[in-house]
Amino acid sequence: MSTRETTETTEITKTAKTVDDVEAGADDDVGIVGARTPGVPRPDDAPIRVRGLVKRFGPSAALDGLDLEVAPGCVHGFLGPNGAGKSTTIRILLGLYRPDDGHVRVLGRDPAREAPAINREISYVPGDVALWPNLTGGQTLDALAGLRGVREKAREDELIERFDLDTSKRIRTYSKGNRQKVALVAALAAPTRLLILDEPTSGLDPLMERVFSEEVARAADAGRTILLSSHILAEVQRVCSAVTIIKNGRVVENGDLETLRRLSRTRIEVRAHADQLDALVRALTDAGVGARRNRGRLEVQVAADRVPRVLAAVAEQRVTDVTCEAASLEDLFLRHYEDVR
Questions:
Q1: N or C: the chain end with fewer CB closer than 10 Å?
Q2: pTM (two decimals)
Q3: How many Å separate Cα 225 from the centre of its chain?
């Protein structure tokens, strides 16, 4: 391998830490981490447990008492806009940053002291993957598997086919989406317990996004735990069973996704003639329910316990064009970020 490729190899493996002489606390977050080590204890508690996490950069607090717990075998969405603290949290979980305060355990270990041991059992995919430009896709997968020290070739080949990846081409000819495919194949094929995915579908087309969702569900069904950080709310809602939303370095929403949706306000939309809508607005106003009207459409958002009252008022007007739906993940998210829309 050339000197240039050796340098690139060092860069891609900084976060992998699959050899004992790689120091915890490297300053790069590009890489895919690998394999399970025989004899490492397997704790029964949450694969990720964070309490009161604080990380400061100068006078600014990127994380200000953040709590995060991810249950075993769960696909857990981790949401927030740029600057909310998601990437800082992930870098602390990987041992790249040291926290200023708080308690952090990943697979029962402290990443500030035991990052190499932890990262052997983690698959990590960043949103912008750096790979060796002079190697082919196949050679890159060979190298990553060699660094991990273990390989499930049949599973890897299956994923190559599912993601429609041409592994005969050199990395430098790949689009961003194809580079992401290489990272995803390596991460999903690795026999690891925990996947940390940070904007993993960046550059993928809608068809490949669907394949990704199916493979994440398959990984969870196999008992693997997934922390998924994504700005694509529809993607998170489709694959995640739990979600944590953060703002300014703190958690503002956390829990089972379906429960959070049920506890949030329900949206009811009514389409009818003007006279019916006039009468409905009066009835809702008398009941203390506010409504937004736009031409032939009326929309209300109410707590779950008020839905029957609203639907009864709608029925009295003999309106039949009615849509009633629980809050979406987007509704939950924007409730905390109305000021940044």
A1: C
A2: 0.73
A3: 12
Q: Which residues contact 36 (CB under 8 A, 6 or more apart)?
A: 120, 121, 150, 191, 192, 193
Asked if residue 231 and residue 125 are part of one domain, the reply reads: yes
- 193 and 176 within one domain: yes
Could you count the other beta carbons within 10 Å of the beta carbon of residue 65? Answer: 14
Determine the structural domain holding residue 21 and report its residue range: 3-256
Q: Which residues contact 266 (CB under 8 A, 6 or more apart)?
A: 301, 302, 303, 304, 307, 324, 325, 326, 327
**Which of 256, 277, 295 marks a domain boundary?**
256
Q: What is the CA angle 155-217-116, rounded to 5?
A: 65
Q: Are 124 and 35 in contact (CB under 8 A)?
A: no
- Per the CB < 8 A criterion, the answer to whether 74 and 88 are in contact is no
Give the Cα separation of 302 and 290 in Å (integer).
Answer: 9
Write phi, then psi, for 121 (nearest 5 degrees). Answer: -110, 15
User: Does 241 share its domain with 288?
Assistant: no
Report the CATH number that the domain containing residue 128 is assigned in CATH: 3.40.50.300
> Of 46, 42, 226, 14, whose CA–CA distance to 116 is shortest?
14
pLDDT value of residue 262: 62
Q: How far apart are CA 313 and CA 172, in angstroms?
A: 63
Between CA 258 and CA 280 the distance in angstroms is: 30
| 336 located within any domain | no
Same-domain pairing of 252 and 272: no
pLDDT score of 51: 96
Residue 244: the pLDDT is 93
Predicted pLDDT of residue 266: 80
Do the Cβ atoms of 243 and 74 come closer than 8 Å? no
Same domain? 15 vs 85: yes
Residue with tokens 């806009």: 81
Mean pLDDT by 10 residues, the chain (341 residues): 45 40 36 40 74 95 96 93 90 96 96 93 92 96 90 95 97 96 97 95 92 96 94 83 92 82 75 88 86 84 82 88 77 63 44
In whole angstroms, what is the distance from residue 272 CA to residue 315 CA? 12
